[in-house]
Amino acid sequence: MSDDATAFVPGHITGFFSAHPADDPAVAGSRGAGVTLSHGVTVTVEPAAESVVTLDGETVEMPPVADVLRRLGVTATVRAESELPLGAGFGVSGGMALGTALAANAVFDCGHSENDLVTVAHEAEVRAGTGLGDVVAQARGGLPIRVEPGAPEHGRMDGIPARPQIEYIAFGGLSTADVLSGDTTALTAAGEAALGNLRDEPTLSRFVTECQQFARDAGLLTDRVENAIEDVSAAGGDAAMAMLGETVFAIGTGLSDAGYDPEVCRVHPAGATLESQ
Q: Boundaries of each GHMP kinase N-terminal domain copy (predicted)?
């Protein structure tokens, strides 16, 4: 057992999705597509008598992280740092769960494989109601397409082979749990249509187009998000809404060209990684 270990997990923006609940959390998940970001979550795990979780120095209640520690049978101090806002569609809770799984496995010599750890984190997110597809996307990196839902043993992934600059601006948050616990019929129909179109034409431009259509069809657009997307379009760029948050992301310099002051990063080239142990 080592003193501590640190993992980095890229942020993840979902552009569109369909929800696929199941009694088994490893089978439950979502289909859809998104973007992993070079901005993400850095998680350090250190053995402790009692488990404590902090995010950017503040103690937080993070049920998926607590679930991961419980599943691994360990107690630890979990310190997470991120430039991404919580609850705004960037996969921070999923990143914390996956980062905790990777780092705790290293610290406590748990002996699990990567797929095992992704499954533990995915199941924790599903049980907490905080996400359905972030963890598997964050484990893969790039521009992931979730072809079939669920943890690695059940799901299937593909991706768009590109690594553009990404700009984003967050106006506020939306409750993932509230959306996922409601009627997702229209949302899922829109997500299935978007996925079919993207798989026929797996390009960046098609991805953004399908994200825009999905947000409209699913009834998730807010006024601020819609206005920002229209501003980017008027400036000759492409932007869409992050699911689930009151957040707009753009390919290239779309938000800057429209007069906004966005955060700037790139698509992350790889998935979650153990940085030190």
A: 68-142
- Among residues 192, 211, 200, 220, the alpha carbon closest in space to that of 249 is found at 211
Q: Which residue has the higher pLDDT, 141 or 2?
A: 141
What is the number of helices (H) and of strands (E) in the chain?
9, 12
Residue 169: which CATH number?
Answer: 3.30.230.10
User: What's the pLDDT tens digit per position in 150-174?
Assistant: 999 999 999 999 999 999 999 987 6
Beta bridge partners of 263: 168
Check: CB of residue 98 under 8 Å from CB of residue 118. Answer: yes
Q: Are 131 and 118 in contact (CB under 8 A)?
A: no
| N-to-C CA span, the chain | 10
Contact 92, 83 (CB under 8 A): no
Residue position matching structure tokens 């601006």? 169
Please tell me the pTM assigned to this model: 0.95
CA distance linking residue 168 with residue 263, whole number of Å? 5
Range of the domain at 21: 1-277
Domain count, the chain: 1
Amino acid at the residue 206: R
Q: Is the pLDDT of residue 245 over 90?
A: no
Hey, is 37 helix, strand or coil? strand
- The residues that bridge with 5 in the sheet, in sequence order, are 45
- Using CA atoms, how far residue 94 sits from 193, 257, 261, in Å, is 25, 31, 27
Alpha-carbon distance of 233 to 100, in angstroms, equals 39
Q: What is the pLDDT of residue 173?
A: 76
Rounded average pLDDT over 52-78: 98
